[in-house]
Amino acid sequence: MHALGNVVRFGAVAVVATLALSGCSGRGSSVASSQESATPEASWTRPDAPPDPQTLIRAGDLAVSQVPDSVLIFIESQTSDAGTWKARVVTPDGTEHQLKIESEAAAVLVGPTATEDSDADKAKRRANVDGTHLDYRGAVDRILHAVPSGSITELSLLDVNGTVVWEADVWDDKLAERDVAVDAASGAVTVNRQV
Questions:
Q1: Is residue 133 located within the same domain as residue 111?
Q2: 57, 148: one domain
Q3: Residue 93 backbone zone (phi > 0: left; psi -120 to 50: alpha; other: beta)
Q4: Omega of the bond prior to 112 within 30 degrees of 0, cis?
Q5: Would you write out the chain's pLDDT as a tens digit for each of its 195 residues?
Q6: 82: left (phi over 0), alpha (psi -120 to 50) or beta
Q7: Domains: count for the chain
């Protein structure tokens, strides 16, 4: 039902979103081809219809449930891979585990697979997690408050110049891409700009 709301909400790309939602690629369609060649944004990798923000939450919840005592530090919608989600979680010792999750966040397709990292990488991840008072769910809430009706396609926990932040790629209701950053300690939105 939410997907149908997206079609209405994204007006100018309703034709493309309708094709994507119906399972048609639109390749060979004169409508899709004319839109792609007529717009300067044709080289962008913007989604036809961004994922429902609640799907990101479900995918994050599923990822965390697969690795005991883990914390989500990264999640991204993989539009080039049938809309799957790529996620990374970290355990208390700093070990990262990678997962690939089905597009509707109903099943884990690959993983969890632990990465082989240096002690320095593990220490950095532990420091980032220790500097966080806001988990990914709280970050999503702050981001969607800053970009109403937005859709998050990537969310990462990072250290930016000594401050731990949640950085997000967000698509607004006009399918304009925005960079949004939320201070992971205070919850303040520190960046909200169109790309």
A1: yes
A2: yes
A3: alpha
A4: yes
A5: 333 333 333 333 333 333 333 333 333 333 333 333 333 333 335 445 556 778 888 889 999 999 999 999 999 987 666 678 899 999 999 999 999 988 888 888 998 989 988 889 888 898 889 888 899 999 999 999 999 888 888 999 999 888 899 999 988 888 888 999 999 999 999 999 888
A6: left
A7: 2
- Which one, of 171, 192, 195, 193, lies nearest residue 6 by Cα? 171
Helix (H) or strand (E) segment spanning residue 164:
strand 163-171
Does residue 48 lie in a domain region?
A: no
Give the 3-state secondary structure of residue 34: helix
Same domain flag for 24 and 60: no
Residues 166 and 134 in one domain: yes
Same domain, 11 and 64: no
| pTM (2 d.p.) | 0.71
Q: Which two tokens stand for residue 10?
A: 């994204």
User: Could you list the residue range(s) of the whole structural domain that residue 33 is in?
Assistant: 2-43
Token look-up 């007006």 returns 11
